[in-house]
Predict the 3D structure of the following.
Amino acid sequence: MTSSPFFISFLSVILIALANLFLIPLAIRFGFVDKPTVRKNHEGEVPKVGGISMLLVFFVLYLSLGRAHGGNLHLPILFTISLICLGGILDDIFHWGPRKKFALQFFATLFCVLSNDVLITNLGRIFSSEPLLLPKFIWQIFTVISIVGVINAIDRKSTRLNSSHEWISRM
């Protein structure tokens, strides 16, 4: 099995669509749907399964492809991703609001960064042929803020798309 980025991306999209085909009817049956509000401007009820589908596919691919190619399992990363997804589910159920969700994302990401030594140490070659190095004392906090920022940017974008049905219909 190949592990090219294109293949993994293509496989991810296919598997997420298949997971949604299975999970959407269950969400509708059990009432795990988003209803339109002033903040959530969409037509009808939208099943809340996109993040769950992505998490399941991530685990399947990470565990199968990572192990198949001799990769090590990074439990802090798996724990962090699971915790953030669980936070999203709990927010969907209990309507936590942005502060609690942000706090969970921040501390889960901080745990991952501190326990895994996952760090952004430079900003690449944005101004010259040499990478722009960050001062060592800000590596950890810059990494946490960047990861949480990307999580929220993706969450905001996916909220705008509302559902996989609407996303597919826009294509």
About this structure: The mean pLDDT is 84. Strands lie at 33-34, 46-47. The radius of gyration is 18 Å.
